[in-house]
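Predict the 3D structure for this chain.
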Amino acid sequence: MKSKCNVLCTHLVLLFYVSLISYLCLMPVSEINSEWLIFTHADKIVHFIFYFLFAILVFRALLVTQKTTLGTFVLLSFLIPAVYGGAIELAQEYLVTDRSAEFLDFFANLLGASLGAYLYRLYVRTQLTIFYSEQ
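Done. Predicted structure below.
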């Protein structure tokens, strides 16, 4: 049985994480310390990691609240971050004065979300196999 605390905590973590991504992606460029970006396109790795974790958190939130197939979880945990990443890139282009949309950022978002969703599915499936084999 899924506890209410587990469901609430999972959703709060997801909400905090989405808020953090939004803040970091929409904050003025002048406030970003980019000294640690030591090579060209290092920010793409950051985008990949952001959306890799985003997909895992979406998958987890769906897992604790929905009853459907793992395939549906994978699809939704890819699509939700992908659409959100596209919306953030559009917001950077049209709503923020010193930021601009980049296709490679969006592509890194898609790669991160797809790998996060797929790998978390493998993890969940492995855990279910272990659980049912011990019974």
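Residues 9 and 69 are 23 Å apart (CA to CA).
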